[in-house]
Amino acid sequence: MEHCFPKKKSAITFKSCFNKGWVNCFFIYAGQLLSHPEETNRNMVQICRVQSWFVGVTPLLIFATVLHQGFATVAPPTPAPHKEPGRPERGYYNVTNHNGTICLMAYMGLQLNISYNSTSQKKVVQDVMNLQPNLTKHSGLCDSDIASLNLTVDAVKTNLTFVFTMNSTSNKYHLSEVTVSAAWPEMKEPVSVHNSSLDYLRGTVGYSYFCRDEQTLNVAQNLSINTFQLQVQPFAVKGDQFGAAEECQLDEDDMLIPIVVGAALAGLVVIVLLAYLIGRKRSHAGYQSI
């Protein structure tokens, strides 16, 4: 406290007292006001100016701090990481004609790949969805040369229609048309795709088309369908059973690779054996000449 007073008997200075703190400075000035009123009043004016400056600046500092905190903490929501749904479950679907007999059979796992405008991410994203057989309704129609299978999943507002066409001249059938519509919650607008110029799943009438491997059916630029362990027969179904299966090209290629590898290994073994026999014969001839 004594350092707040000057050595001469005059009023204390504002700077020396202010360094002691507001409370100490108040009592010091109160004591000095009686002995040096004029000097003390001038110093009190300095204190009031400083107080006014703090009163004016403090709200601005608080406002700036709150504004900075607001900008620093507000960030766009981070979308959840995309998870692949895995391999879809196989489902059995059939279509009956007007007399109640089955005219189309299908046993397959289906997976949709759709690109759409996302409402949360505000950009085009690609999503994958498996069709769950227990949530999928099936229906369809059969005619002499056209058979259709319609699959509907009400839970996700998704509808698929497969149309098979038969050529009576060649006695062949193929998947000629696919229609897909989807209105998922994340979609900015529903997706609707139709393609009537396809040529997939070719088979012979009376036989079923079977593909064990995963197969991709490209329907449009923003939509494709993956099939898993697909077996389908759209015409000439007898006894509610699939006809003899015709393997798809993918399965035939898978069978061809082991055959080629096995033949190559067998040829290598023959070459090594011949080389061994020739070498042994030459060494035996050398012993006889000696």
TrEMBL record:
Domain called Lysosome-associated membrane glycoprotein 2-like transmembrane: residue spans: 257-288
Entry annotated with the keyword Membrane: yes
GO aspect biological process, one term: establishment of protein localization to organelle
Keywords noted in UniProt: Cell membrane, Disulfide bond, Endosome, Glycoprotein, Lysosome, Membrane, Signal, Transmembrane, Transmembrane helix
Primary subcellular site in the record, as a coarse category: membrane
Transmembrane segments: 255-278
Signal peptide positions (record): none
Record-annotated Lysosome-associated membrane glycoprotein 2-like luminal domain positions: 88-238
InterPro entries membership: Lamp2-like_luminal, Lamp2-like_TM, LAMP_CS, Lysosome-assoc_membr_glycop
Membrane topology (UniProt): Single-pass type I membrane protein
Family matches, as Pfam families: Lamp2-like_luminal (PF01299), Lamp2_2nd (PF21222)
Disulfide linkage: 211-248
GO cellular component entries: late endosome membrane; lysosomal membrane; plasma membrane
Compartments it resides in: Cell membrane; Cytolytic granule membrane; Late endosome membrane; Lysosome membrane
KW Signal (keyword) present: yes
Similarity comment: family membership: Belongs to the LAMP family.
Protein name in the entry: Lysosome-associated membrane glycoprotein 1
